[in-house]
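Hi R.,

Here's the chain you asked about this morning:
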Amino acid sequence: MLAITGGKILTMAGRPLEKGTVLIDGGKIAGVHAGVLAPAGAEVFDASGMIVMPGMIDCHSHVGIVEEIYREEGDDSNEMTGPVTPHLRAIDAVNPLDLGFRDAVAGGVTTVVTGPGSANIIGGEMVALKTRGTVVDDMIVRQPAGLKAALGENPKRSYGREKKSPATRMASAAMIREALIQGLTYLKKESPERDLKMEALGRVLRREVPLRVHAHRADDIMTAVRIAGEFAIDLVIEHCTEGHLVAQKLAEKKIPAVIGPVITNRAKVEMQGMTLATARVLADNGVLFAIMTDHPVVPVQYLAASAALAVKGGLSAEHALKCITINAARILGLEKQLGSIEPGKDADIVILDRHPLDISSRVAQVFINGEKALP
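And here is the predicted structure, written out as tokens:
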């Protein structure tokens, strides 16, 4: 058993414990207590004067798929040979030795969702991974973690310039509908011949995983909401740059969002409405949302810094921390396993020398599944 003692514990499940103890056994959190408590024979990590918090979760990235230091050699994010590729699986492109995973751990990020880019209308299945390991199969937390889709500029740019569909937003929406209708037809067959594309769409239509739609502009966000309503599927809005303009609609439909990247410029026309106030407005309207890095757009180790900028835009510090811990876990359907320091959850713990939203904070140690992840 391991006892992390003496630190201020940000449990994300209630009030902080000013000086507490986290007990870890068998890769799980065995107990959380006020005061210093070290059972006989336990290994002790003295966190006195430090902050103890759950491992951070980056809900949207391309870690391991768009590899550090490489260009086309290590970029497997977009299969631009056809606009509808739901059968692609991110897990088959992840290099667990990508330097991005090392950077994630160093920044206190213990879980990432990685997946295809946004060149295709439907790009493939995303995967949630722990950030420590050498074999990707051993790092899986949830596979698949959603089916990636995209609206707006990227699919138009990828195919319209080649005089192929989609060349307009109308075509993009129509192609998503066509794919979902094909999936419904497939599900109605008694003994269909196996079809990997239809199986992936079937997981969305059976609400086993959400359709996670890249949408920056407010009208693209509402197109995704419209399609989700037509097919009664679960939806997550990715990026949600103009989410502040339709926050009430997202709240009414109980549609979550993963916002960001925050530390970036207006790289595209559809990002002209970018503002640090988006997070605050979503929170004020009761929308469940997380904060992403979109690594490598923003390096994954700057997830906490991204949350700190949301505070600059008016979001409370407590809510910002939830956006990279328990709220991220809820969006992924992993709240019983990750996102807070509670008995029975994975022992993914980060220890810092000061508050994680302090830009000068330093990660002193990281535990993933109860094991030290830093030298």
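One quick note: The chain has two domains: 1-55+340-375, 56-338.

Cheers,
M.
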